[in-house]
Automatic annotation (TrEMBL):
This is RNA helicase. Residues 25-53 form the DEAD-box RNA helicase Q domain. Belongs to the DEAD box helicase family. GO terms for molecular function: ATP binding; hydrolase activity; RNA binding; RNA helicase activity. The chain holds residues 208 to 444 of 782 of the full protein. Keywords: ATP-binding, Helicase, Hydrolase, Nucleotide-binding, RNA-binding. Transmembrane segments: none annotated.
């Protein structure tokens, strides 16, 4: 009997917010392009994970989201796939005006993993992804950003450095992801995160993912998200 209770706990899904779009059961329901569906198939992603079933329709509808689910639950694709759709929906510009999608992650390693995942899905749409984190030469990074990109995956500190160096502008950024927000706070990035968010237009779409919801993260979420839908999968924080 205990086992049954544990099982149910691990699958518990809680969703709160008003007018929440209904969850999907298959990627086909998402209305993705043929190219994007092909890339998903190539990843051998047969069906969306629990967090993806809930989050994809919410994010695709343009809503802000607070997503909580344990490591390994597929959160990256839950924000990268709608980001590709969001970018494809934007008008093409003659002149480069900076990234449309901005993803912040706590560490170089995590940012790099997200970068690789984003590249996989971006490739078929000729969307350019730039990685912005420590360990790479600032000059090289500056040059890469100057060349232009639609997606930036960054650690907060290095992104601030690049903004100060005017390697990029946030004029065009309309899709912001804060991944592992609790860890970014643990690492002392709250001021940097606040500075980055402050440089992005308020009518952006904002996605916040976190394994736990400490008071400080909750407070930030209240300040920077607009009518978010909250999705929790399993027993987290
Ligand atoms: P999280 O950010 O929640 O810790 P990740 O996004 O890193 O999880 O995903 C964990 C692993 O699951 C990755 O190897 C990813 O490629 C894989 N994955 C993501 N979505 C699916 C899916 N729908 N089907 C199968 N594997 C998936
Ligand atoms: Mg993750």
């Amino acid at each position: 009997e205990q086992d049954v209770v544990e099982y149910k706990k691990s699958l518990a899904i809680r969703v709160s917010g008003f007018d929440v779009p209904r969850p999907i059961k298959t990627f086909e329901e998402c209305g993705f392009s043929v190219d994007l569906m092909k890339t998903i198939a190539k990843q051998a992603y047969e069906k969306p994970t629990a967090i993806q079933c809930q989050a994809l329709p919410i994010v695709l509808s343009g809503r802000d989201i607070i997503g909580m689910a344990k490591t390994g639950s597929g959160k990256t694709a839950a924000f990268v796939l709608p980001m590709i759709v969001h970018i494809m929906d934007q008008p093409e510009l003659e002149k480069d005006e900076g990234p449309i999608g901005v993803i912040c992650a706590p560490t170089r390693e995590l940012a790099h993993q997200i970068y690789l995942e984003a590249k996989k899905f971006a490739k078929s749409h000729s969307i350019r992804v730039s990685a912005v984190y420590g360990g790479m030469s600032k000059l090289e990074q500056f040059k890469e950003l100057k060349a232009g990109c639609e997606i930036v995956v960054a650690t907060p500190g290095r992104l601030i450095d690049m903004l100060k160096m005017k390697a990029l502008t946030m004029f065009r950024a309309t899709y912001l992801v804060l991944d592992e927000a609790d860890r970014m706070f643990d690492l002392g990035f709250e001021p940097q995160i606040r500075s980055i968010v402050g440089q992005i237009r308020p009518d952006r779409q904002t996605l916040l993912f976190s394994a736990t919801m400490p008071r400080k993260v909750e407070k930030l979420a209240r300040e920077i998200l607009t009518d978010p839908v909250r999705v929790t999968v399993g027993e987290v924080g």
